[in-house]
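Final report, results section. Input specification for complex C-07:
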Amino acid sequence: MDHDCIIVGGGPVGLALAAALAPTGRRIAVVERQDRSTLADPQEDGRYIALTHRSIAFLSQLGAWDRIDPAQRSPLREAQVLNGTSPFALQFDPGAAGEGWLGQLVSNHLIRRALFDVVAGQPNVELLTGASVEQLATDRRAARVTLADGRLLTGQLLVGADSRFSTVREALGIVAQVNRLGRSMLLARVAHEGEHHAVATEWFGHGHTIAMLPLTGRRSSAVVTLPDGEVAAMAALPPAELGAQIAQLYGHRLGAMTVEAGPHVYPLATTYAAHFAATRAALLGDAAVGMHPVTAHGFNLGLQGVATLSGLIGQTRGDWGSSLLLRRFEAAHRLATRPLYEATNLLVGLYADESLPARLARHATLRVGARLPLARRAVARMLMQP
Ligand SMILES: Cc1cc2nc3c(=O)[nH]c(=O)nc-3n(C[C@H](O)[C@H](O)[C@H](O)COP(=O)(O)OP(=O)(O)OC[C@H]3O[C@@H](n4cnc5c(N)ncnc54)[C@H](O)[C@@H]3O)c2cc1C
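Structure output:
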């Protein structure tokens, strides 16, 4: 076999796995369809990732965190959930445990760039960029990947980290729940008049949801969720009108807004694979679990999967594709992801429902939640952990 591990997908999760396995000194290949220059210098894609304390610690361990300019990291002190015109807000703060912050917001492209820089310097990691997979198969002896240019890679372990519509998952015959939600997210970085005080808000209005993620200075990442049919018209607005519309949807709480970057549009779909492991193969990141972004856990859980798989690999001196190792990975990662996946979908269902009972239930949840500091602390801890 020419490799110990073949990773398909050089997104943030695939690169994080390559970085985590590199110190073993064994041979790792990353197959990525984008070309090397795009991977080395990814452009802003509008996503700001709320990294938990645990993710930051893991990125530090991989050598990626220090490659992100501190001026580009935005601390998140508190999160608030608002419902329609209700005066009750659910507040989540880190309590004594969180060093004063829930997490840090970092642009996705900077995370990708930092991880690429770590991986590009590793002599035992082969980055096969501009490459697409023509065929793949695994059996008890080996994983085999044939690239479109005819090259054949063989390895002990194949990892699919190729997004929520994973072709590796499909080729392995692993089915997944795929829920297309009929809604899209419009993302824009805005400058505004008011101070956000490092507080993120998720405001469930009627017919739309707007989140404001606080960035350094008087700037935020605005995230507007709309039915698919309405998002194109909003994305086509000239920047000045888009800024005015976002300010209006946000009830002018931060004053006038100017669009600095974007908009970017993401149709919403959640996915959950029926299995995270097969013969000599594992799924990681969105290929395993495609979370709804509302609870900001997708990448955090992806990193947790990387930590679990690389930890198990670190404990073995032998075969990285052994079925015992893969069964352990599957069990641990399912336990870590399933409750959060279900809880997030429940929240999305409750807040996307415009019927009167659902609106009353939301109102009641916020009123009760506002009086339960212990429950709020528990949720805050949960938000900080993955
Ligand atoms: C609007 C939005 C906001 C988000 N906010 C947060 C947040 O606050 N916190 C958080 O934790 N997560 C967040 N997420 C989720 C996070 O962005 C994803 O979980 C993360 O990007 C998943 O990384 P990945 O590497 O698994 O997949 P991807 O980022 O999808 O990367 C997959 C890679 O595989 C490559 N690829 C695909 N198919 C092939 C193929 N056949 N051959 C070769 N290469 C292939 C692609 O080119 C790509 O580079 C958010 C997501 C969205 C959409």
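The mean pLDDT is 90. Residues 8-14, 31-34, 47, 49-50, 108, 132-133, 161-163, 167, 185, 187, 266, 285-286, 293, 296-300, 302 surround flavin-adenine dinucleotide (CB under 6 Å). This concludes the modelling results for the funded period.
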